[in-house]
Amino acid sequence: MSTVTEAQIIEALSLVQEPDLKKDLVTLAMIEDITLDSDNNISFTVVLTTPACPMKEQIKQSCIDSIRSHVPDAAAIEVKMTSKVTSSCGHHHCNHERPLKQVKNIIAVASGKGGVGKSTFAVNLAVSLAKSGAKVGLIDADLYGPSIPTMFGMLNAKPEMLDKNLVPLEKFGVKLMSIGFLVEAETALIWRGPMASSAIKQFITEVEWKELDYLIFDFPPGTGDIQLTIAQTIPLSGAVIVTTPQDVALADVSKAVSMFRKVNVPVLGLVENMSYYELPDGTKDFIFGHHGGEIFARTQGIPFLGEIPIDRAVREGGDIGTPYVLGHPDSATSKAIYRASMEIARRISITNAAPSEELS
Ligand SMILES: Nc1ncnc2c1ncn2[C@@H]1O[C@H](COP(=O)(O)OP(=O)(O)OP(=O)(O)O)[C@@H](O)[C@H]1O
Ligand SMILES: [Mg+2]
Questions:
Q1: Would you call 95 exposed, middle or buried from its count of C-beta atoms within 10 A (0-12, 13-18, 19+)?
Q2: What's the angle, vertex CA 207, arms to CA 206 and CA 213, rounded to 5?
Q3: 235-271 residues labelled b (16+ CB within 10 A) or e (exposed)
Q4: For 38-81, how does the pLDDT look when each residue is reduced to its tens digit (9 = 90+)?
Q5: Which residues, by Cβ under 5 Å, contact ligand 2, an ion?
Q6: Alpha helices (runs of H) in the chain, residue ranges in sequence order
Q7: Which residues fall within 8 angstroms of residue 203, CB to CB, at 6 or more apart?
Q8: Any idea which of 1-15, 91-105, 283-297 has the lowest mean pLDDT?
Q9: Is the CB of 50 under 6 A from ligand 1?
């Protein structure tokens, strides 16, 4: 038996491709802490770009297979899997001076039309990403109808100040900031245009977010001046669009997609909410039309992230302040929301790894 060297391990691992990023693990600097003992036992760490990478087991197995076939004297192989979320900063769509170096990715959750379930999805996305092990924050950018305090059961909470900055509140593993924590609803109502956008910008620059993998931005409904200003001035990693299946909502979705494309923010995908109602006998009633969101996504070349049915428990979760995915973790709907959330994280890591010219 000859002694196995680190160079042999690196060589074998350089033959393993990251399936999404289409490069090998060594080139992507995803291998750390290689150790070898005198009996040729090997251990190393694979650093993934999302905490709940769906390819985790596949990548791990490919590492073991490659070492087994290229390093015949290898004894036991221990592969540790960890993650370090990549940042969109430095990317071509992030050409702003980054106000917050410790916030790796800012994700907008937007829609063309109001009341389609943006805040509901934003809350459940934030909680799902936190559950997967990521550090997550959530901003309620809806100055005129903040809903995050209600949806997190924190109606009377007030954030503290630290060195002139606000300290975000925290619940269910998610850091939170909302205009609803700061002023009475009537006060925000008189804010218009520039004042509203600058208040929203302060949510990024004057809040002690500390280190975050994902900061979710629950956009106000519509595609007016305020939304455009936020999309232009905040360094967004990407936008997730929420819609209901009916035509009127889809017509407005086109405007939202165009707005993000105009300011070079990648559209990460489309979620169809209130897709159908499941009757007691299991049949689906497509109240607002059939698969409108999926068809729209396909024609626009946008990834379709899945459908969420109309479910009383989803609405109740928002009203009682326990996000649905926490109250009903094993339901098919929670699994669909979790899958969509992991797909968003995956799309962000692909976008961050792509050379600038590949994005349009
Ligand atoms: N899948 C669903 N099933 C049942 N009720 C839902 C579902 N999604 C959202 N709702 C309910 O619909 C209402 C509107 O949802 P939400 O506040 O999330 O929409 P929004 O797009 O953020 O609205 P706005 O444009 O006012 O910000 C809420 O009462 C919410 O609980
Ligand atoms: Mg909302």
A1: exposed
A2: 125
A3: bbbbbbbbbbbbeebbebbbebbebbeebbbbbbbbb
A4: 999 999 999 999 887 878 999 999 999 999 999 999 999 999 99
A5: 118-119, 142, 147
A6: 6-13, 56-70, 118-131, 148-151, 185-189, 193-205, 225-233, 247-262, 292-300, 312-320, 324-327, 332-353
A7: 139, 141, 177
A8: 91-105
A9: no
3-state secondary structure of 207: strand
Tokens of 145: 């109808």
pTM of the model: 0.91
Q: What is the pLDDT of residue 273?
A: 95
DSSP run (H or E) holding 77: strand 77-83
Q: How far apart are CA 48 and CA 46, in angstroms?
A: 6
Query: Hey, is 32 helix, strand or coil?
Result: strand
As given in the structure block, the two tokens for residue 332 are 């098919």
Q: Which DSSP state fits 252? A: H
The DSSP result for 128-158, as a single string, is HHHHTT--EEEEE--SSS--HHHHTT-TT--
Phi, psi of 222 (to 5 degrees): 100, 180
Measuring CA to CA, how many Å separate 65 from each of 8, 62, 299? 14, 5, 40
Shortest-distance ligand to the CA of residue 124: 1
Distance set, CA 101 to CA 88, 98, 211 (Å): 11, 6, 8
Q: Is 310 in the pocket of ligand 1 (CB under 6 A)?
A: yes
Nearest to 111 by CA among 228, 274, 268, 221: 221
The total number of residues written for the chain in this structure: 360
**Is the pLDDT assigned to residue 231 strictly greater than 70?**
yes
Residue in 111, 113, 119 to alter for ligand 1 test, most ligand atoms within 8 A of Cβ: 119
Domains of the chain as residue ranges with CATH? 6-83 (3.30.300.130), 103-358 (3.40.50.300)
Query: Which ligand lies nearest to the CA atom of residue 113 in the structure?
Result: 1
What confidence category does residue 129 fall into, taking pLDDT thresholds of 50, 70 and 90?
A: very high
Any ligand 1 atom below 6 A from CB of 80: no
